[in-house]
Structures are given as C-alpha cells and as structure tokens.
Amino acid sequence: MTSVDRPVMQKKDYKTDQDVRWCPGCGDYSILNAVQGAFAKLGKQLHETVIISGIGCSSRFPYYMETYGFHTIHGRAPAIATGVKASNPNLDVWVVTGDGDAMSIGGNHFIHAMRRNVGLKILMFNNRIYGLTKGQFSPCSEQGKVTKSSPLGSVDYPFAPIALALGAGGTFLARSIDILGAHLEDTICKASAHTGTAYVEIYQNCNIFNDGAYKGFTDKDVRDERVLHLQHGQPLLFGAKKDKGIAFDGNFRPYIVTGADLSKAFVWDETAETPAPAMALATMSEAEFPVPIGVFRRREKPAFETGLQGQVTVAKSKKKETIKDLLMQGEIWDVK
Amino acid sequence: MDNANSTTAGLEKGIQDLDQVVIRFAGDSGDGMQLTGDQFTRTTALMGNDIATFPDFPAEIRAPAGTLPGVSAFQLRFSSFDIHTPGDAPDVLVVMNPAALKVHLKDLKKGGILLLNTASFGALDLKKAKYEKDPRTDGSFAGWRVIEVDLEARTQEALASSPLDNRAKDRCKNMFALGILYWMFHRDMEPTIKNIAQKFAKKPEIVDANLAVMKAGHAYAETTEIFQTAYRVPPAPMKPGTYRNIMGNQALSLGVVAAGHKAGLQMFLGTYPITPASDILHQLSGYKHLGVVTFQAEDEIAAVCSAIGASYSGSLGITSTSGPGMALKAEAIGLAVMAELPLVILNVQRAGPSTGMPTKTQQADLMQSIHGRNGESPVCVIAASTPSDAFDVGYEAVRIALKYMVPVIVLSDGYIANGSEPWLLPDPDKLPEIPVHFAPEGKPGEKFMPYSRNPETLARPWARPGTKGLVHRIGGLEKQDITGNICYDADNHQHMIDTRAQKVANIANDLPPIETIGPRTGDVLVLGWGSTRGAITAAVTRLQKEGHKISCACLRHLNPLPKDLGDLMRGFKRVVLPEMNKGQLASILRDKYLIDVKSYSQVNGQPFKSHEILDYLTKSLSASQKEVQQ
Ligand SMILES: Cc1ncc(C[n+]2csc(CCOP(=O)(O)OP(=O)(O)O)c2C)c(N)n1
Ligand code: SF4
Ligand SMILES: [Mg+2]
Asked: Do B270 and A83 lie within an 8 Å CB cutoff?
C-alpha cells in the first residue's frame, strides 16, 4: 500500500509532541511501543484512526498517538466508541482502558460492547491495581491483596476478564504481556483484522503500586515453564522442550499431561463454537497451571454497526419521504 | 358548558349551541379510555374546533381490574374559540366502573352530566372501589344529571350476530359510550369509521364489531328518551393553513429530525427507555429512511455517551430521557461541555424525586439542568410550553447546539408529552437555515488547533475524524485554549472557565425580544415557562378582559435568559411566577435581577388549573394595589 493516498507508515509517525507522563519503568511504555509497531506494520493512516480511552494511567494513551484521540470519562470509553463506530463505520476505532476502568466502573459498557459485537478493538491494560488513584485494589486484584484501601487484605474475589468477556458473547478474545513485545504486536495485528469487538487483555506491570504482579510467570528463568502459548491448530504444549501439555477431562477440567500422555494434549481451535475449552483456560488456576497467552476465541459474526447502518440503507432505498411528507402525516385538515 | 343558547332547530330533540365543552372519560386501564378519547379528539379536530387533551395514566400497566390504582382517564376540551388548556372541571364525565367514579366524581362540574356504566356495579365491584354502599342509591349524585346505561348489555345486544366471543364483545363497550357522545355533541362518525378500519385492517371482525357498537350507541342516544338534548360546538376561528393534531413527544421528535435534515447531518439518538420519554425513541426508530440512527443503549450513561461519540464523529448526537436518567447523564454532559461538542438532551420531566410518580407531571429539573454537574459547567437550557411548541423548541435546540458547539438541554414534561392540540403545520422550506461548517482538510505541515475560536460565537471548529490533517486529541482534562493541549496553568483555567460561560451567554445575542400577552408595563407581570403556559394565558387573558393591568410571558430560553427580561420585569409593580416546583425559576430570577419575584408553587403531580391561577392572580392584583397605596 504505497500509493500517495496510503503512504507507508513508520513507528515514529505515530509519536506526538507531548511528553509521555507515565512513571519510568511502567509497562505502559512497552505497550505504546508495540501499538505503534503494529499500526506501522498495518499501514494505519493517522486520520482514519480514532483512539478512545476512559480514565486511569492507561487511559492517557491517546495523547501519545498522532491519530484522532478522545480521553473521555471513567469507564465510558466503550459507550462513546460505540457512538463513533455506529455513526461512522469507516473509522478504525480503538479503545484503551484499564482493569478498573473496564471491569469496575465501566463493567456494564464492557459486557454490552461484547454482546453487540461492535467493531471496536479494546486494549485493556491489566495491572491488577488502580494506578492513577495511587494503588487501591481493583476487581482484578487477587484476593487478600494488601493495599492502602485493604490493609488486612482484600476480601473480594477477582474477575477473570477473559471469562467475563466470553460469557458476554465476545467474538475475539486474546491475552498478551507488556514485556513480550513481538507477541503483543502480533496479537494487536490479529485483533485489528477481526470484524466485531476484539478484546485484548494485556498484562501490564505497574512498577509503583503492584510491582512484579506477573513476575511469577514472566521472569525469563520461569517463563517457558509457566506460560502457555495458544496456537491455532496446535496442541496445548508448554515447557522449554514442549514436554508438557494441557488436556481436559470429560467435564472440561484441565490437567497436565507429560511423557506418553503428551499426545492427549488438547489441540487448540480458536474458532471453536463451544466456549467450553476457552472458558476452562480462562479460569484455570494461575498457581497450578501455566498462564495461557494468545488467542482464546475468534468467531466471525456480523458487526453491530453493519446491522445498524444496514437497516438505514435498506429503509432509505425502500421509502422516500421529504420532511414535508413527514409533517403531513396522520389526519390533517385545512382551514381557509 | 357555559354560554349555552337554546335552540330547537326543527328537530324532535333539542339542540343547544355551546362555545366549549370539557369531557372526561374514566375507566379501568383495560377499558380503552385512551383510545376512546383519542377517537373523539381526532374527529373533533377534523371538525374545526380548537382542542386540548390531557391523558392521565395509571402508574401500573395493568393494575388489578376494578381497583382505584387501575383507573385511567382522558380529558379533552373543545371549543369554538382559541383555548389554552384541556380545562379544569369536566362538563361531562363518562365512568365505566365504580373505581373510576370514586376517583373522578368530585371533579365533575355542578350541574354536569354523569354517564354511568351500570354493568359493573355489583357488590364485588363496589368493594374493589372501596364503596361501602352503592353510591347510586345514597344521594351521592345530588346536583348532577345522571344518565345510567348498562353498556355491557347494550353492547352484547348490538353484537348478537357477531362471531366474536363474549370477552371480545365486552371490549367494544367503550365504543357504545363513544357513539352516545358523538350523538350528544353532533360529531361526525366518519373519521372514526375510517380510522378503526385502518387500525384493525387485518381483523375485519374487530372492525365490524367496534363500528356496529358505536353506531348502536349513536342510535340509542337518538331514540331513547334518556337523552333530551344534543349540543353543538361550532368550529373555532383558526389561522388559515394546514393542521394536524399533535402530541408533545411527537412534535419534539419531528422538530429535531427536521432540524437535522436542514443541517444536512445524520442524526443519532442514543437512549434508554423511560416514562414519559420512551415515545421519542419509538417514533425516531421509525425514521431510518430519513437517515435517523437509533441506539437503545444499556443505560442512560451509555446513551448519552454514545450520542457524544456520534457528535464527535460528525453526526447530530441526541439523547432523550426523564428525571432519573437525567441524573445518570450528568458526568457525561460535563464531558461534552469540556470537549465543546454539540449535543441535544431531551428531558421529558416527571414527578420526582427518585422514581417519584413516573406517569405524573412536574417541572422540577430546572436547577438540575442549569447547575446539576460538577465544576462550572454551563449549558444551554430551553423549554417547550405546549405540544406543538415542542416542534419549534426541538428545532431551536439543534440550531443552538450546532452554532455554539454546546450541549443544549430541552425541558418538556409529561403533560406536554402526552397532551395534544391542533398544530398549524410549518412550511419546511421556510424553517430557518442551520449552517454547519466542518473544519476543512488541514494543510501539510500545519498543526490543527482544535480550540481556536469563532470570534463572534466563541465556538470551536468541528473536526470530523476521517478528515486529513486534523488529527488532534481532546478530553475531559482542562486544556489550553487554541492548542487544546492539557494545561493546569491557573490563568488558562480561569480563561477557559470564563470562555465556556461566555460562549453560552452569547446565545442570548440571537434571541428576539420576549413576546408578551398584554402591554410591557402594568401592575402585574406573570412569568412562566414550560407547560404552565396554557393555564397562565387563560387566567391572564380573562383578567385583562376585566380591565386589569396584567400581562404575561412564557420564557422559552432559560439559560441564557433573554436580554430584555430585566427591563420587562421592572416595568411592573409585581412579578409572579407559577411553577410546578418549589420556585426554581423564581429563585434564579431573584438572584440574577434582585427583583422580588413572587413564586406560586404547586408540586402535586398535576398541571395547574387555570382557575387556581386566576384566584392567585386576583389576590396578587389586589396586593399590588395595596403596596402602591402604602
Ligand atoms: C467517576 C470517577 N470516579 C473515580 C475516579 C477516580 N479514578 C480515576 S482512575 C481510577 C482507577 C483507574 O484504574 P485503572 O482503570 O485500572 O487504570 P490504571 O491507572 O491502573 O491504568 C479511579 C478510581 C474518576 N476519575 N472518575
Ligand atoms: S502508577 Fe503504575 S500504571 Fe501508573 S504510570 Fe506509574 S507505573 Fe504506570
Ligand atoms: Mg489498573
């Protein structure tokens, strides 16, 4: 795509003149980098792209992207983005949100975006904490989390965001990690290719209020053993030598297989109609099992805005009416 | 039925000419009272009378049959002169059961006609209506002319050969009452015959049954001796033109659609169902062929947010709601203030606080609309005053929102929303132009300034995503004027606060002088806004005829207020303001103009009756005289 109209894009084209204001070392930097990389690869044109965010450290994102950007209010980005996409389906609309923004105050809009399958690409930076308000537990924090607002540990059970999205009817669900730049970039490209809502949960380290939240499986020395790469059409294998696998029993309870049983490892199908395997992986205990990343689900389904604008197009072709016709409806009478 | 002249124009039964009549139909919510009222209204409008209607719905969709909470009513007033309200006390009360009688009899004018359906006056019916004795036998009806008809028996007779089952037959009994009234008031049955045939086109046996019963009712009134007199209300002199009867929610919907069309914009309604605003969604969802997109959101927050998103993308974003939904939208409206985007918010007010009385009317969201957001968050607020006025107000809201890039809140209420009146149709070609200028493509190397301003209006440019060379970021954080960059500078914040306020204040530059009924000086000025207009106008014109120096004005623009309001008020000895709230506009006016505006408050879920206003104003007039003498 190298016409004058669609010039080749480079990462730097997406940088703005604004100073990036995240804490040094914050995982958000690498996500910004990966998004810029993916957008350049995909040749996204600045003027066709809209990034809409809520409120939180993560939601500062639009200021750092030389596209159209709207930094809105806490939790409401999917609702505003739905209005944008539904009114102009030609726009490439991205939502950037945090775990508090999307799962707590904006939970309702999040599930309904999933249900409707609006053509939005939602990137949720999950640091399992409220960053911007200085470190309270979030709906994604593990139970017992000690924070400023939970000195004795949080009592709440956390959401499994992918499971929530799956239950809400999400058609593209994926997970990646801030420090896995190439994987993240690739996942963003896949999300971009999806019609309908694409949801990417990105594990992001908040080095100020929840440092090392993902260390247990992202550190280089444990990563191979603790991270499960979902690959479409491939068995669920992990370990440096791919010598362990995940299989399911008749009730879709996962168990680890090794040695001679390795052939029982489940062959991953991200397009499967049944949500059961994806649900099993999304709710699998992080302590007992490796952490899955990659695409959990990818199903084709007409997007909301297509149906909505489609009705308008059909109605326009079937019925022509002027404003005068419209006013003159019902019983009318003349007074001379 | 004042002003009656008896004539007996050669007919067997007498005919009286009247200049106005108020009829109220009351029955169980399943008795078809709204439909009956609606039919009478259509016919009467077509016959050239002026007419005003007031449906009074029960709170429950289907309360237990025959109980007091299940009573549904429809009042209409028609006349041979210009009227402003659906009337206070009915001249004719049609009641279908004891519960309706219990609720409404006290309102019937002394000497008025009570048409009573005797079919449902069994012991159980009386008990459900909490009557200890049969009111027909204990003298309760003294002072009224009572006509008793067993509507069920008469209906069954009329439908003896109909294929319908007994229950379906029973459901036609309202048409018997309608037939009787058509005879009594010399109404033409033709419009109803046509309308029913159209409405139930797919069920010919229902059409036949309804029409047979109506005709039977008409014949019954003509032939039986119970009915001695019929009444004639000649047409009202009306301005020449084409008319249609319209309800407030319909007119408001048409107003925004016409304006969106004039502006050449796609219209996007983001909304969530709520009484009494839902009909706006129902109506607009049928206008897809006109490019109207409707989105039934998951809640009111999403509704207003989606409308903001639509406006951001270059469509006309609209959201509609009532009180509780309005409360939920507050934060997002603040975002639209900050982002300086056009947005139209339609608030069909109902009785609050909280869930309040959803089917009853009130105008207590004024302060909330003007001030009900965090920070200094100025928006434009305008109000519709009658069902047909809602068209002009919807149109005006769109004009202002687009010209000034501001949210505009339109206040209507349940009384306007469901009330109806004849509407002189405007010529769509003559409606004011609504120019829209999207920011043009940017030149290479030039940076777009999202908060550069039109020096006259202070509006910022509307930059549609998708346009080359205009990429920019906006949001709810305070921003530097012109560049739109985030900015916490103290002087800039003060400047932006002042600029947003000035931008809304500038809207007053467009406003024509306030229209008054009566001279611009005198003893008493009655101000009003919204649906109190009719009752105020009726009372004031009556007092003017008696020679009093009293004038009135109904304010459409509530924020900003018209520039000549201060001078107008200062031309009178006394300013009074009836409102269906605890004096909200009165307190705004006192605050802004340091004039002792007298508040006349009523917050009972019902519209003001014009005789109540008349009594109050009579006292005000004598008080204003006393003040002068002191
Ligand atoms: C209506 C409202 N309530 C509360 C806040 C305060 N607030 C801002 S961001 C935030 C939580 C952010 O957490 P998250 O979405 O996880 O983003 P992060 O900062 O961690 O990236 C809260 C509670 C607000 N801005 N608006
Ligand atoms: S507080 Fe945490 S999430 Fe926010 S910028 Fe700092 S490191 Fe990043
Ligand atoms: Mg967070």
From this structure: yes
DSSP conformational letter for B287: -
Do B522-629 and B244-423 have the same topology in CATH? Answer: yes
Q: Is B6 a residue whose pLDDT tops 50? A: no
Q: Is residue B7 over pLDDT 60?
A: no
Alpha helices for A135-254 (secondary structure H): 161-167, 181-193, 215-218, 220-226
The distance of Cα B57 from the centroid of its chain, to the nearest Å, equals: 14
Is A91 within 8 Å of B313 when comparing Cβ atoms? Answer: yes
**Is the domain B244-423 a CATH 3.40.50.720 member?**
no
Domain A11-213+302-311 classification at class level: alpha beta
Distance CA A168, CA A110 (A): 9
- The span from the CA of A29 to the CA of B204, in Å, is 71
ipTM of the complex: 0.98
CATH class of B522-629: alpha beta
Domain boundaries, chain B: 15-232, 244-423, 437-510, 522-629
Q: Work out the pLDDT band at B602, boundaries 50, 70, 90.
A: very high
Mutation to test the A interface, candidates B305, B316, B430, most A Cβ within 10 Å:
B305
Residue of A nearest to B302 (CA): A79
Pocket of ligand 1 (CB under 6 A): A 55-58, 74, 98-101, 125, 127, 129-133, 138
Q: Return the residue whose CA atom lies nearest to atom 13 of ligand 1.
A: A130
Going by alpha carbons, the residue nearest to atom 6 of ligand 2 is A23
- Say if residue A335 is exposed, middle or buried (CB neighbours under 10 Å; 0-12, 13-18, 19+): middle
pLDDT at position A220 over 70: yes
Q: What is the pLDDT of residue B471?
A: 98
For residue B251, the chain A residue with the least C-alpha distance is A327
Vertex B297: Cα angle to B294 and B301 (nearest 5): 120
Query: To 5 degrees, how large is the angle CA B255–CA B259–CA B261?
Result: 120
Nearest to B360 by CA among B190, B531, B111: B531
Q: Which residues of B216-237 are buried (b: 16+ CB within 10 A; e: fewer)?
A: bbbebbbeeeebeebbebeebe
Tokens of B357: 């009385």
pLDDT of residue B530 exceeding 80: yes
With contact defined as beta carbons under 8 Å apart, do B79 and B62 qualify? no
What are residue B409's DSSP bridge partners?
B345, B381
| Ligand 1 geometric centre to CA of B269 (Å) | 28
Give B505-574 as a 3 state SS string. Answer: HHHHHHCCCCCCECCCCEEEEEEEEHHHHHHHHHHHHHHHHCCCCEEEEEECEEECCCCCHHHHHHCEEE
- Indicate the class that CATH gives domain B15-232: alpha beta
Give residue-wise pLDDT tens across range B258-278. Answer: 999 999 999 999 999 999 999
Output the pLDDT for position B252: 98
